[in-house]
Amino acid sequence: MKIIKSNIETEVELPLQLNISFRKVYDLYEKYTHESYKGHPFYSSALEMVKLFKQHPELNDGFSDYSLLDKYEEEIELVLNPLFPEPLLLNEIKAASIPFSFTSFKFTDRFKNILDNAGEDYELSVRNFQDESMYILACTFILSFVYGYKIDLKRPFYFDIPDRTSGTMKYYRAAFNGDFSEITPTEIAPKITKEDYRDLLNNFDNIDIWKEKFPPNSYIFKGFGLINLFDVTSEEMLSSIKANLLASDDSLIFKLQNNLRDFYAIKDLKLGYSIFDNLNDKLCETIVNKSNSIILNNKEEINCSSNYFCEEVMQKVFVNHETFIISDIEEYGKATDKNPFYHNLYDGGIQSIILIPIKATKSGDLALLEIASPNAYDLNSVNINKLKDIIPVFEAAVKRTSEERQNVLEATIQENYTSIHESVKWRFYEAAEKYHTEFQTNDNAKLDEIVFKEVYPLFGQSDIKGSSDARNTAIKEDLITQLSLAISVLKDACKKEKLPIYNELMYRVSTFLKDVKQDLNAGDEVNILDFLQREIYPVFNHIKELDKNLAKKVDIYMNRLDEDLNVVYEKRKDYEKSVNLINEKLAKYIDKKQKDAQKMYPHYFERYKTDGVEFNMYIGESITKKNSFDNIYLYNLRLWQLQTMCEMENIAYTLVDTMPHNLRVASLILVHSNPMAIKFRMDEKQFDVDGAYNIRYEIIKKRIDKANIKNTEERVTQPGKIAIIYSQDKDALEYIKYINFLQSRKQLGKIEFLELEDLQGVSGLKALRVEVIYQKDFDEKKTITLNDLIRQIES
């Protein structure tokens, strides 16, 4: 007899003394020994069973010593056999058990098989078990059994039992039958009155009151119970999926993937999620964290119009919005002449997949749910029907997520892209007011174009020098670290287990390492990480089982990987921290300074963060409502710009010692003396220069930081210097005055007069390049004031 002893009854206090007894079964046998049943088929066997009980009175009287279950194994098997009919042993999940302790001692064959498949370490235990809840449950049992007070506390119990065969978890709901038990009060048991009953009803959560009315061990339980388990894995997974979709946290896809693995009993099942952009006819990664789209397979997007899918997938999924299943990827490859979709799935280790299109937006965008398995026919046209109850839940979640995503995007756009600068807001209000007034009488009323004429542009840039090289170097160093760690693990594995495969894998990893050290090409990182994922990590899982030292070695490797990206991300993280530190400091500083500059004269200002900071300013009378503009304000703003960039250089320089990466900025100012017009582009929701002539200014802005000094290969922008680009000599004379002023303040040093190489479509550019004198203990709060600048302009 299989006996599973629970640790509950030894650890949890109960109002009951638990005794195993089979008296209720004996009473049933004794019934059939009466003369009136002499012709009944049960008569003779009942006589034998009653004789057995009389030979072993403990079976009737009851016992709390569970060792007697072993002693009377054969007798108990005989006594309980009628309750466990042989035709149902492989169907029912049933056991004889002691209520409130869950110690079980007779099982159907199906129950035994489930427990054997759970593994030797598995202990049959109730999910979310709480000591106090069990005590109160026992009390309500006594109230009903002894005193006739009915309390509906039918809270189901659940057992989570692993399935080693599938590598997943199965979920079971338990139903208890207490018909074979009896309860009697002891001398210490207080008699429960109606007032006590009402008091208990009003104090369900007060365990002290329950223990007062039902002291520990004050009642005697004799008998046993029958526990029946019902497989509710599908219902549990549906409930869990609903709960996870409602929570919608950062690990949503990971949680849903685990849900579906248990739901389908496929331990390697994968879940992905992507968006089909109907307007641009492409699949793109979703904003859901860790979505890991299976179709995209590490690509950011796929153009669906480039014969990527077969016609059947395009028609069913993207046109008809029907679920599509591929049970065998190899068969699909033969039928499609191994199209790109086949190769992507094959390279990702996928052998069967389900694609579920869910309408996400009114414009026809689809959320594409991807469920895949590394084994052919794990997913097929039969078990796809299990998803019928789940798909509506996903549809509701996608609709909600889509609405939330749209709201987030609109808020982001409003805050970051179409926010109207304070200096020009009045013009937008004016246009809106006019539109609404005209719309009252004219349905064809149109919004005015927002144009500001005769404005002077100022452009400045503090660019992180060599950022691309620094980024590539960081990637290279991280890959070298990761590959070196992998080689170290394989070397130790070779010492423990002499397998040629370890040497072969070491050779391949070493080849990758050698190539990376020589040069890092586009796509190398993806290929290396894919190789590690497919070839190395499964071997690492085996290596971990060999001994503790190797397991520790593998853990060291895994702990060096970034949790989100699953790669060594140390040097890159340092690089990104350095870039972000510079960007945040410079952006914050210039945002603060430009508010002061607005006090000189209102002007339009916009700032961008890239690998560094760049900003545009436009100043002119049309931007204000007043006829007050004078060139003095333009000169003032130019001096302010030069001064501010000098201070930004100091800020960036002071950060060098605090950054993980030694990054420097190179600063540039573009001077343009002729006024121009800027126009608000409704389609792009931003200002742009207006007119063909002014396009030249935009071309120069985009190309000037890559320009070389004439007849050299030296870039005009260099760390520690500010390059002032101009085309008219009068502009140089103006800026020399400003430079002289800042030289007198010991902030700028030597000036260089340079000619620049011709750019495509642009020629005749020159530059002043002036050295920045970095200030010791630079304090951004103690800089040149507005009054200093104004006095300089007026002198």
Write the layout of secondary structure elements.
Layout: H1 8-11, E1 16-20, H2 23-31, H3 43-55, H4 58-61, H5 68-71, H6 73-80, E2 93-98, E3 103-107, H7 109-118, H8 131-147, E4 157-163, E5 168-177, E6 181-185, H9 194-201, H10 207-213, E7 219-223, E8 225-231, H11 233-247, H12 252-264, E9 270-277, E10 282-285, E11 301-303, H13 311-319, E12 324-326, H14 329-335, H15 340-347, E13 352-359, E14 366-373, H16 391-416, H17 425-439, E15 451-464, H18 467-496, H19 500-518, H20 524-544, H21 548-559, H22 570-600, E16 604-610, E17 612-619, H23 631-654, E18 665-671, E19 676-681, E20 686-690, H24 695-703, E21 721-726, H25 729-744, E22 748-755, E23 766-772, H26 786-794
Parallel strand pairs: 1-7, 18-21
Antiparallel strand pairs: 2-3, 2-8, 4-5, 5-8, 6-7, 9-10, 9-14, 10-11, 12-13, 13-14, 15-17, 15-18, 15-19, 16-17, 19-20, 21-23, 22-23
Helix pairs in contact: 2-3, 11-12, 14-15, 18-19, 18-20, 18-21, 18-22, 20-21, 22-23, 23-25, 23-26
Question: How does this model look, in words?
Answer:
The protein has 795 residues and is of the alpha+beta class. Helix content is 44%, strand content 19%. It has 26 helices and 23 strands. Strands 15, 16, 17, 18, 19, 20, 21, 22 and 23 form a nine-stranded mixed β-sheet that branches. Helix 18 packs antiparallel against helix 19, helix 22 (570-600) packs antiparallel against helix 23 and helix 23 (631-654) packs across helix 26 (786-794). The longest helix has 31 residues, at 570-600. The termini are far apart. Mean pLDDT is 84; it is low at 409-417.
